[in-house]
Every structure is written in structure tokens, then in C-alpha cells.
Write a structure and sequence with these properties.
Helix content is 30%, strand content 26%. It has 281 residues and is α+β, with helices and mostly antiparallel strands. Helix 1 runs parallel beside helix 6.
Length: 281
């Protein structure tokens, strides 16, 4: 078997196994749509483990694409190569939908910037007077269109109806909100606020199936609940530390990416490790 991936994403490699795929989370890290040369050791294993945990936790809400993340159950020759241990997930092959499903429970990031201009996010009006990191009155669903290169493009719910039909669009919104509500409630018991997150879905045999990764530090904004205080940036367990560091370097956010020093690599890894240890262990 050819051990070369048929597709290399920013941080994951995909191996085609007929009606299945092997998704392998590398230790590469990206920020501002740029992949860095320096890996974050064990990052892929941490992300894969968190995703597997939440796929199991939420399967009462919707079926997902995971078959197994158990190294011994991977097909040969992957189960003979230690590189794949812990960082690989055997999944069902789906027909992926072109919508990125974003759920926001708190005001931060691009949502905060848009709110400051329009008192709304993706056309959804919010009440006046909200501060940075404030909890929203209820979680909101703000889909985007997946882009092959660069940032995904924010869109409206109505546009997703036009793209994929009213029935599937409504199901995406319903399931995304249910997933966020369940996982964010669980995370709070572990001292972590999930401020926002994103999902991807596909279709298999006519049914909607949850795919990709879920509730990882790469796909979610994790905050320390014990230090939560609206009106400022929060202590986070995700890529935000790296983004904030990069903002201080003078980098114009165009390739080539700057070199990450050992301190930044270690601090980034520690953020990911703490999220894993709180949520999964």
C-alpha cells in the first residue's frame, strides 16, 4: 500500500482506503492561514484524542464518521508504524457539505468586531451594551462557506438554504446548536468555557453525519472559567496564545511564516495539554 496521503491539509493528512479514510493529525500548526515550519510536539495526538472523546460523548445527538481511533484496530500497514499511534482516526468516507457550521456562545473574535460596527453578528441582531467576552443571551448559529484557500467566508442562514436546501440547512443549525449546548455544559464542569466552535458535516446514505474534528483547541475557543471576566481578552487553552504572540512580532501575516522559538512552542503545547487533561482525563 502507498503510504503517501492523497491529500495534505494545513495540519492533517488524509489516506484513501476505498470507502474509508485514515485521518492523521500531524504536529504542524497554522495561524492566520499560514503553516509554520516548527511542529508542536504531540499536538496531533492531543487533537485526535479530544475529537475521539467528543465524538463518543455526542453520538446520542448525531452519528459521526469515526470508526475507530484505536491504533491496534487500524488497517495494515498503519498499525505497524508507531508514527500513526494516537494521531490517527479511521473514518467513513462522506460527501462533505460546503458549509462550515459556527456556533458562538460568547462575544469574541470576528463576532466582536462585527458587533462593534453593527450590533449584530452575521445579520443576527444582538442587544446593545455587550462587552468583549460577554456571554450571549443564547448561542447563535453563524455559518460560513468553506474556502479552499484563506479564510472561510461568513454567510447568512438563508444563503445556506439556497446552497443545500431548506431541510438540510435547518438540520445543520439544529444539530450544531445541540452539540454546542451539550459539550459546553460538559466542559463547564471541567472548568473550561467553550466560547465558540465550528463543525463540518457530510452525507452518507442520505443521512447527515458529523465529520472532521470537534471541540479541539484548533476548532474552538477555550477559556479558563475560574479567571473569566468580561470586558477583556480571556486566558485561553487554544491557538489564541500563538496568535497573540504573532501580533507582537511585526509579521505581516503573509508567507513565509516567522520562526517559532522554543519558548513559544513549549507554551503553545502546554495550552493544548491542559485542555486535554481537563476535558478528557
Amino acid at each position: 500500500m502507498d503510504l503517501k496521503p492523497f491529500k495534505k491539509g494545513k495540519v492533517r493528512d488524509l489516506y484513501d482506503l476505498g470507502d474509508k479514510m485514515l485521518m492523521v493529525a500531524s504536529d504542524r500548526i497554522s495561524a492566520f492561514d499560514c503553516v509554520f515550519n516548527e511542529p508542536i510536539p504531540s499536538k496531533g495526538i492531543i487533537l485526535n484524542s479530544i475529537s475521539a472523546f467528543f465524538f463518543n460523548l455526542t453520538q446520542d445527538i448525531i452519528n459521526n464518521h469515526m470508526i475507530t481511533a484505536d491504533f491496534e484496530k487500524l488497517p495494515e500497514p498503519f498499525n505497524k508504524d508507531e508514527y500513526f499511534k494516537g494521531r490517527s482516526m479511521l473514518v467513513k468516507k462522506l460527501s462533505m457539505l460546503p458549509v462550515e457550521c459556527v456556533v458562538r456562545g460568547y462575544l469574541e473574535g470576528s463576532g466582536l468586531r462585527e458587533y462593534a460596527k453593527n450590533t449584530s453578528i452575521c445579520g443576527i441582531p444582538l442587544r446593545n451594551g455587550l462587552k468583549q467576552a460577554d456571554k450571549l443571551d443564547e448561542p447563535i448559529y453563524t455559518p460560513s462557506i468553506k474556502a479552499e484557500e484563506g479564510h472561510d467566508i461568513n454567510t447568512s442562514y438563508e444563503e445556506t438554504e439556497n446552497m443545500i436546501g431548506t431541510e438540510i440547512a435547518a438540520l445543520l443549525k439544529q444539530k450544531s446548536l445541540e452539540l454546542y449546548i451539550k459539550a459546553s455544559g460538559y466542559a463547564l464542569t471541567k472548568g473550561i468555557i467553550i466560547a465558540d466552535t465550528k463543525f463540518e458535516f457530510g452525507i452518507l446514505d442520505g443521512n447527515l453525519v458529523l465529520a472532521d474534528e470537534i471541540f479541539t483547541p484548533d476548532s474552538s475557543r477555550f477559556w479558563d472559567a475560574s479567571e473569566y471576566m468580561p470586558g477583556r481578552a480571556q486566558k485561553s487553552f487554544d491557538k489564541q496564545y500563538l496568535r497573540e504572540y504573532l501580533e507582537t512580532t511585526g509579521w505581516d501575516k503573509n508567507p513565509p511564516a516567522p520562526t517559532l522559538n522554543n519558548h513559544v512552542i513549549t507554551q503553545t503545547l502546554n495550552k493544548y495539554k491542559e485542555a486535554y487533561e481537563r476535558l478528557v482525563k
